[in-house]
Here is the input.
Amino acid sequence: MAKQKAAPVTTADTGRGFAGRAFQRIQGIIDDTGGQAGAPIRVLQQAQGIVGYLPPTVLKTISRDLKIPLAELYGVVTFYSFFTMQPKGRHVIQVCLGTACYVKGGQDILDLMKKDFGLEPEGITPDGKFSLETVRCLGCCGLAPVIAIGDDIHRKVKPGHVKDILNMYH
Here is the structure.
């Protein structure tokens, strides 16, 4: 029988590179908070801050190292809206579909995002620049319709202005 050649060692195998550094940081967070009340939520928040979202590999690591059932972690992640298991773009666009925004054209803005930019709710552009979410209220009903991009609120948005707004986020 011919002896098989060993596969080359990659940075993923040795824990170097972004993924390795991210898991090392997450492990440090687990070590610092393990066993304390509220540790799972703090670890999940900080892990999401490092990676940008909570992929299954991160959840499995946290589950194993905090000795918490994976199903319980999934329950926490899916219950709280600030956790996400999907990657987000560098700029998160939130289109308000609350009553005032909807009546004044929020759905038209959402339709334009799909038609002109290929963005679906919970989707991300291929270049990772933008992701799209719908929200029920941003608390700016008198400025309807509104979209938020990060911490910026854009008021009385008309579909014809969306391209100019997005161009501000290079």
Notes: The chain has eight helices and four strands.
